Amino acid sequence: MASEIPESILIIGAGVFGLSTADALSRDPDYKDTKITLVERHSFPAPDGASIDTSRIIRADYADPAYASLALAAQEQWRGDFGADGRYHESSLGLTADPGKEDYVAKSLENVLALEELAKTTSGGGSIKPIRVLDSPEEITSVTRTGGSSGTHGYLNPNSGWADAEASMRYLYNRVRATNRITFVTASVTRLLFSSGPVPRVLGALLADGSRLTASLTILAAGAWTPSLLDLRGVLRATGQILAYIPLTEQEQAHLAQTPVQLNMSSGMFIIPPPPPTSSTPSPEALERGVPRPHAFLKVARHGHGYSNPVTIPYPEPPREGERQEKTITISLPQTSPSTAYASQAIPSEGTTACRTALRSFLSPSSPIPSRPFTHTRLCHYADTRSGDFILSFHPAYAKSLFVASGGNGHAFKFLPVIGERVVECLRGRCPAEFREKWAWPGWVEEGKWEGDGSRGGAKGMVLEEEMRREKGKL
Ligand SMILES: Cc1cc2nc3c(=O)[nH]c(=O)nc-3n(C[C@H](O)[C@H](O)[C@H](O)COP(=O)(O)OP(=O)(O)OC[C@H]3O[C@@H](n4cnc5c(N)ncnc54)[C@H](O)[C@@H]3O)c2cc1C
């Protein structure tokens, strides 16, 4: 048993995967003698990281029963200390669709109804509220209370909601720091260090200042930047997703705070309500970054196929025996503006139009909100895999010296309270049976043939530079 515990571990990236892994390792007595270092390219929290934002949907509404029950386990923690102090809001989720997307909605409904039944038998169902099926736009309007209706059918799940993403990440960060078990380093990893020989090992990481961090085990959790450090063509790629914030009056904020998250599975568009005005006192961190009222916005975004951003980089790995060494590879990587407030940046006008159109359907046709200028827009990046599954696996080429914890695919945030423990289980060869295949190292599949998990909306195949050129983003 002791021999599987490495002397030292280097975690790259302090997002959901990296930080929750550090948390799980710091609490696990088996790792009490292991030296653990976490390196992150920004001082925490990374402004352009996928895990840092005002809000993320917390739902067990999945077409896949394995993710639905893992999300339920996470939700139990969101309802406790993890979500305390306004970090979690159980505002309900209206999950809807237009004709043609019946399948995902029906499977998701089936899973949440099954979870509802299970909760009734295991916990008496005290805190479980009944799910309401919605068969027409009128029924949708009656539950959203925003006067709008997006989609023709769906359901309202009062057991889902949203979390303040940045506040939750700060909560976990402080909890991990308080253990004094992890050495935090702020530095950018420029490449992994490899040993030579027929079976190379990863020895750690080379940093931008030329120094090295070495470890017996490296855990790569660099989110959508993961493909900058390994050749992950056909395995993992970054896609940019649109986010926009529109300002609200205090009265609008007070009203919308009482309304559900609305997610249309056909367009992929969703809105996340603000918290009530009483909890919108600016945090010292927000004031520091020049954002006066961080929550007095309505957030609109798209869970879509996203934009790719092809970039050519030097080949990041050593040559493999018998293979011709390529000098460079072209892969999709994030394009962000970390030095601006809330990492704000222009997005393609196709995206701003989609956000406005969505607001017009989610809100009442007479609402003045959709016509206002956006306060800020941003691209937030998914680390996408072909099936929508995470990768929690050793890299097959490096003799168990490199573990990859990535592939959030736009849905990992809700698992923040539980995913670190699953990472450690997979590291120890004890991956939960229902996830063993899903989280295993995926084989190469040509990117044009990735099947996805059926949850994405919007157009396929958009390239960021082309969309930006089409017409400069108008706000
Ligand atoms: C627009 C958007 C909406 C989403 N909505 C939801 C939602 O509603 N519900 C939900 O559950 N999930 C949602 N997600 C998904 C969820 O936020 C992500 O799956 C999750 O945050 C990914 O975490 P991560 O650790 O992989 O990546 P990140 O949070 O991006 O963390 C990676 C970290 O690695 C660091 N890093 C990168 N390269 C280097 C390097 N070379 N050296 C050192 N450090 C490095 C980065 O700075 C970053 O902090 C959404 C994601 C996006 C983008």
TrEMBL record:
The species this protein belongs to is Aulographum hederae CBS 113979
Signal peptide feature range: none
The record ties this protein, via InterPro entries, to: FAD-dep_OxRdtase, FAD/NAD-bd_sf, MTOX
- Gene Ontology MF terms in the entry: flavin adenine dinucleotide binding; L-pipecolate oxidase activity; proline dehydrogenase activity; sarcosine oxidase activity
Bias class Basic and acidic residues marks the residues at 466-475
Q: What is this protein called?
A: FAD dependent oxidoreductase
- Segments of this protein annotated with the region Disordered: 452-475
Domain FAD dependent oxidoreductase: where? 9-425
- Cofactor or coenzyme needed: FAD
Listed A to Z, the keywords are:
FAD, Flavoprotein, Oxidoreductase
Q: What is the lineage of its organism?
A: Eukaryota, Fungi, Dikarya, Ascomycota, Pezizomycotina
The similarity comment for this entry is: Belongs to the MSOX/MTOX family.
